[in-house]
Amino acid sequence: MASEYPEYVLGRVIQQERELYQVVTDQEDYSARVSRKFRYGAERPSDYPAVGDFVLMQCVNENDIAVIQKVLPRKSQFMRKAAGTNSVEQIVATNIDTVFICMSLNNDFNVRRLERYLSVAWDSGAMPVIVLTKVDLCDDVDTKLLEIENIAIGVPIIETSIVDEAGLSQIYQYLKEYHTVAFVGSSGVGKSSLINHVLGTDQLETGGLRNDDKGRHTTTHRELFMISGKGMVIDTPGMRELGMWSAQDGIDHTFSDIEELVGKCRFSDCSHGNESGCAVRQAVKDGLITEERYRAYMRLKAENAYNKNAVDYLAAKKRKFKQIAKLNKHNYKQ
């Protein structure tokens, strides 16, 4: 697609601070903003450039602010509901091949949260890998591993420790030329420490443990780093909450054990509540599925459906007002 626009320069977004982007090209690095035409044509937040995007832009020289005209089609995007009460989507990273879901084995350990991350990761189009950090602080690693394996069937798991460098060598098998890996997870799980190890320098600020045995939040923005001959890594801010945003396929994949049972329910529109002949509820009664996993499945389904309805409504509302503005402009000219 880039060859169709010889007047533009191809670049990749490596950092974003509000409405200003840092874009790297084959020749120079640029600060850039989206054009007015781009801004007018964007219907939702996810239409705007994000870290990892390939963009076409106009550049005068390296000291000027470049103007982004187009975002090339994405092969993957990790998207969540933005923190807060408003139904607003937020792109975390795009064009990623592998998602490292980082979770520490100290007091931050939470299987239900991991199910959320897996659902969003599967839906993104990238391949998830679970990276367990701070193994040296855990006395029952095998027990927690079993919990994870029961809800993340087939997903690779890497056990790591920055203190004694355990498992860090396994990280490198995912780092290869033209390959992008995004590190995601809660605040303070050790993402920045892992990336510093990969980069071979203390480029990112890291924080020690707080009094409650949880890490300190240090990353404040998303940023892509290039490693010569080993592809690219994306650091993301820690997320205390990860809201669902149109992640139906990812939820179905993460809870494939429950989805297999759905087809066995007596009624095709079974809500898996109190209906007779519900195969899902029967599996819970028989101990094949835990009550906690069943409730997590139902909660994520409901949350995802609510946000899907919200985004459809907002998109239709914006299209309506654009049509009204266009009509008013036409009438004014007449």
Automatic annotation (TrEMBL):
Record has Transferase as a keyword: no
Matches recorded under InterPro entries: G_CP_dom, NA-bd_OB-fold, P-loop_NTPase, Ribosome_biogen_GTPase_RsgA, RsgA_GTPase_dom
Entry-linked Pfam families: RsgA_GTPase
CDD domains in the cross-refs: YjeQ_EngC
Domain CP-type G as annotated: residue spans: 85-242
Stretches assigned to the EngC GTPase domain: 94-240
UniProt-listed Enzyme Commission number(s): 3.6.1.-
Details of cofactor binding: Binds 1 zinc ion per subunit.
Residues that coordinate or bind Zn(2+): 265, 270, 272, 278
Keyword vocabulary terms for this entry: Cytoplasm, GTP-binding, Hydrolase, Metal-binding, Nucleotide-binding, Ribosome biogenesis, RNA-binding, rRNA-binding, Zinc
Family, per entry: Belongs to the TRAFAC class YlqF/YawG GTPase family. RsgA subfamily.
Protein name: Small ribosomal subunit biogenesis GTPase RsgA
Phylogenetic placement of the source organism: Bacteria, Bacillati, Bacillota, Clostridia, Lachnospirales
Gene: rsgA
